[in-house]
Amino acid sequence: MMKNSQLYKGSLNIIIMKLLEEQGRMYGYEITQKVKAITQGELNITEGALYPALHKLEAEGLLAVEVEKVDNRLRKYYKLTEKGTTETVNRLAELEDFIRNMQSLVNSSPKLEF
């Protein structure tokens, strides 16, 4: 991950889940390239960040893994489970609320006093 990695680190799971919701199923490298393309190179997900996130989502029962032989190598494809699909909808709604609240705070004219 690059950029303000703390902000993005908290969003990595939902990024993965949203992509899988749209694409159906993807393998790891494909996910990193899709994120790079969508963000025009602004966001690079490293394998060191991606695979622990994928394994955690799988352990939580949100992802299923399919292994296929491609060019004589085994390739792991990830896809959302039924529970993962439901959870994606919930987390995206939460994220949209969060973004809306952050925009309100950031764009508020009066200076916030603490």
Oligomer: single chain
Bin the strand percentage.
15-25%
Strand order of the largest sheet: 1-3-2
Helix content: 55-70%
- Contiguous low-pLDDT stretches (5 residues minimum) are none
Structural class: alpha+beta
**How are helices and strands ordered from N to C?**
HHEHHEEH
How would the global form be characterised? elongated
Average pLDDT works out at 90
Number of strands: 3
The major beta sheet can be summarized as:
3 strands, antiparallel
How many DSSP H or I helices? 5
Write the layout of secondary structure elements.
Elements: H1 5-9, H2 12-23, E1 25-27, H3 28-38, H4 47-59, E2 63-70, E3 73-80, H5 82-107
Antiparallel strand pairs: 1-3, 2-3
Please, could you describe this protein's structure?
- This protein has 114 residues and is of the alpha+beta class.
- It is 59% helix and 17% strand.
- The chain contains 5 helices and 3 strands; from the N terminus they run H-H-E-H-H-E-E-H.
- It has helices at 5-9, 12-23, 28-38, 47-59, 82-107; strands at residues 25-27, 63-70, 73-80.
- It has a 3-stranded antiparallel sheet with strand order 1-3-2.
- Helix 2 crosses helix 5 (82-107).
- The longest helix has 26 residues, at 82-107.
- It is elongated and about 60 Å long.
- The mean pLDDT is 90.
